């Protein structure tokens, strides 16, 4: 990979040297610990910097990719060309009345904890979701019967042209693990959640219970992308995989979790190729045994490694 000095200079003019990394290994920034290098890995600190970086990418006709905290994502071994932007530094969370306003880079877990501190109920379901707020909107994240669309009232986004828009939640077409954010090319800057006033102890009890259920049932001791597959109508993905005798199945360093069959873990320095090959193997086996198509919930991006 060659360094584009012109592009680097432009990027550090917009933000700073500390916010621009060249040929950065993306496995350092994903939950799965998978992924090759990004030509430019940029972490802007203001909305204006985000706008300027998008406009620069447009002017220079350079590819542009958003990366949340990489919890529901597999980046291929060849990495990602162009600019990869992470909004981890836009992580402010503030409460106003019965609303919580959270920056895109804030963790949704931390947002639920702020709601607890403010005695606001409605975000308890998110207390175990590892993603960022932006990522949670991107895929309408949910767990334990709750989802983002239940509590989201509005969002501030940047569009493909670099314009800032404030949109009501209804305009995001939030549905089961989907939204129109990728199709529209929006980049989420912040989200406003409207909650109900409640009792601190009651909210904490629910969150403690959900946290305990997550910790006892999910393989948190290894890197993973969380639930790999969407729930097929009338079935549970984990049960289908378990009934296909696939728990413990391993390709390279990737393994179908022995703790929860719906998870694939990076047990031993897996490559992205091994991890993806195991996903395909699971899909083919379940299809062959039960004639059910398992649809991926996890997103796969980037380029294959050229040998």
UniProtKB/TrEMBL annotation:
Q: Which residues form the active site?
A: 177, 227 (proton donor), 297
Highest taxon listed in the record's lineage: Bacteria
Record flagged with keyword tRNA processing? no
Chief subcellular location equals: cytoplasm
- Its Gene Ontology molecular function terms? UDP-N-acetylmuramate dehydrogenase activity
- Requisite cofactors: FAD
Give the metabolic or biological pathway. Cell wall biogenesis; peptidoglycan biosynthesis
Against Pfam families, the record matches this protein to: FAD_binding_4, MurB_C
Which PROSITE patterns does the entry mention? FAD_PCMH
Question: Broadest EC class?
Answer: oxidoreductase
Q: Keywords, A to Z? A: Cell cycle, Cell division, Cell shape, Cell wall biogenesis/degradation, Cytoplasm, FAD, Flavoprotein, NADP, Oxidoreductase, Peptidoglycan synthesis
Task: Extract the InterPro entries matched here.
Answer: FAD-bd_PCMH, FAD-bd_PCMH-like_sf, FAD-bd_PCMH_sub1, FAD-bd_PCMH_sub2, MurB, MurB_C, MurB_C_sf, Oxid_FAD_bind_N
Entry's NCBIfam families? murB, PRK13905.1
Write down the PANTHER family for this protein, in alphabetical order: UDP-N-ACETYLENOLPYRUVOYLGLUCOSAMINE REDUCTASE (PTHR21071:SF4)
Name used for this protein in its record: UDP-N-acetylenolpyruvoylglucosamine reductase
